[in-house]
Amino acid sequence: MRGRDISWRGSARIILLVIFVLATAGVHGASANPGQDNYPDFLKQPAKDAVVDSWGFYNRECTSFVAWRLSHEEGNPGFRNSAGGRVYGNANTWADTARALGIPVDATPAVGAVVWFPANTGGAGSLGHVAMVLSISGGTVQVEDYNWANTGQYLQHTVTYAGTGIRFIHFGQHTNRNLPASVSTNCPGQQWFTDRDTHNTPIGRTFSNGSTFCVRVSFTPVVTAAACDFWFYVPSSHATASITFGYWNAAGTKFYAPLNEAPVEGYVKVFRAANVRAINFQDNNGQPVGATEIGWGTHADFGMQQVC
């Protein structure tokens, strides 16, 4: 049930974390669906606590699984152990950390919320436990998690929460928005085509063209007075280009944000801004035909995420 804080494990673990994060940067592109054990194989197959995941937790712990779900399925691609400048650490400290960051914590369940077990409560051990809500019925919730009863395995089970001290952390399931891609093409021959990445997620891709744009990919954000983070989904396998996003504010001023797709995969933060009215990129970036490939997610769940 543990969500062990990696900072307690010494310099060898810190070095491992740095190497592992660099080696797996952007694994967020893998598909995640509530109610299925599709926790990534590179975390599922090694022994429990053998590696540190990309979110800063030990593999096959409850915290690692919940971080995976939050960053993939629940629209929180920026979630990390150190998100917001504070450390979530072990599961038993998650509620206090969330409250300190202004994230709602209450006794009201919601599908997609995180179930938080205080230490030695509801079957959890001294380090507490976290899980994801799948469904609600009366005073119980059906949850999914990893490492219940220290097994290091996936499980779905029913939890009685009423009157127990168990709480629910609401990471803003409805504050983040997927922005589907709108694509226009001007491609000679068969330069623009669709494919699937290594996670079987639909993607679009094209060879860059050095003279005219072959493809223009645009996104329509929700205009907000407050600043939002904009994350772009880089597909695996067919994304090696350096691209530049253009985005416009309410006054019509255009800004630029570069992104090198080659070393990353999954959601990557591109820029942070308020009053964004339009976003796009195109491939007339001076690169020779066939030198690199631009890729973008075409699945409804992937494209650009606006996180406010």
Explain what the structure shows:
- The two termini are 31 Å apart.
- This protein has two domains: 164 residues, endopeptidase fold (from Nostoc punctiforme) (Alpha-Beta Complex), CATH 3.90.1720.10; 132 residues, Galactose-binding domain-like (Jelly Rolls).
- It is mostly beta strands and 308 residues long.
- It is built from four helices and 18 strands.
- The strands form four sheets. Strands 1-6-2-3-4-5 form a six-stranded antiparallel beta sheet.
- About 9% of the residues have low confidence.
Tally of helical segments: 4
Helical proportion, percent range:
10-25%
Terminal CA distance: 31 Å
CATH topology of the largest domain: endopeptidase fold (from Nostoc punctiforme)
Descriptive labels:
11% helix, 2 domains, mainly beta, 308 residues, elongated, endopeptidase fold (from Nostoc punctiforme), Jelly Rolls, 5-stranded antiparallel sheet, 18 strands
Describe the structure in brief:
This protein is mainly beta and 308 residues long.
Write the layout of secondary structure elements.
Blueprint: H1 11-23, H2 41-44, H3 62-72, H4 94-100, E1 105-106, E2 114-117, E3 129-137, E4 140-146, E5 154-160, E6 167-169, E7 176-179, E8 182-185, E9 192-196, E10 202-207, E11 215-219, E12 228-234, E13 242-248, E14 254-260, E15 266-273, E16 278-282, E17 293-297, E18 304-307
Antiparallel strand pairs: 1-6, 2-3, 2-6, 3-4, 4-5, 7-18, 8-11, 9-10, 10-17, 11-16, 12-15, 12-18, 13-14, 13-16
